[in-house]
Amino acid sequence: MAVSVALLVAALLACTCLLQSPAVVSADRYTVGSEKGWNPGVNYTVWAKDKHFYVGDWLVFYYQSGQADVLQVNEAAYNQCLADSPITNYSKGRSFAFELNKTGRYYFICSRGYCYGGMKLAIKVEKLRPAPPAGSAAVTSLAAAVPDLAAAVVRTLGVAAAVAAALLRSI
Ligand SMILES: *[C@@H]1O[C@H](CO)[C@@H](O)[C@H](O)[C@H]1NC(C)=O
Ligand SMILES: *[C@@H]1O[C@H](CO)[C@@H](O)[C@H](O)[C@H]1NC(C)=O
Ligand SMILES: *[C@@H]1O[C@H](CO)[C@@H](O)[C@H](O)[C@H]1NC(C)=O
């Protein structure tokens, strides 16, 4: 009985520690063109140059209603501003949020004649980190991503063990 209480205390402490650990995986939302939005006269090659995009990030295009659209196209269509066979075609409302859910290159253009002036965006989406091997515990991948967390877990488990030992001794 006493042993199972001690084990329960240890388990609770370990769980509490994991629940309190900060979220390791975070996605970024990029406003395409930053404060300039998705509009003619912005050089999106320059905008994208210093940015790294990872799987899970979002691109949000803000445009003038009825003035612009967002077409996801292939590389050839991007290079030549061809709008006749887009992969995705979006023009409703005033914004379009697009999730970058795969690695690879993504190309976007506006079909309203502004593409030739530079209203086109090409980005490369990278994998954030190697996928954890199948079946590995969440604790392992968290610990791998954040070495400090691993240390914290070890410390907490140590405390839990000490508490358990103390409980056992006090019986
Ligand atoms: C976008 O899709 C709509 C409806 O599916 C279509 O009417 C329109 O011509 C398309 N625009 C382009 C540029 O592909
Ligand atoms: C990937 O993103 C697109 C566009 O946001 C979405 O329609 C699609 O369902 C997503 N696919 C997965 C596997 O999440
Ligand atoms: C955008 O900037 C890049 C890099 O400075 C340049 O090579 C490119 O010609 C520019 N595009 C337009 C449409 O001005």
Automatic annotation (TrEMBL):
It comes from the Eukaryota. GO terms for cellular component: plasma membrane. May act as a carbohydrate transporter. This is Phytocyanin domain-containing protein. PANTHER family: BLUE COPPER PROTEIN (PTHR33021), OS03G0758500 PROTEIN (PTHR33021:SF547). Gene3D superfamilies: Cupredoxins - blue copper proteins. Keywords: Disulfide bond, Glycoprotein, Signal. GO terms for molecular function: electron transfer activity. SUPFAM superfamilies: Cupredoxins (SSF49503). It comes from Colocasia esculenta (Wild taro). Pfam families: Cu_bind_like. Residues 1-27 form the signal peptide. Residues 28-127 form the Phytocyanin domain.
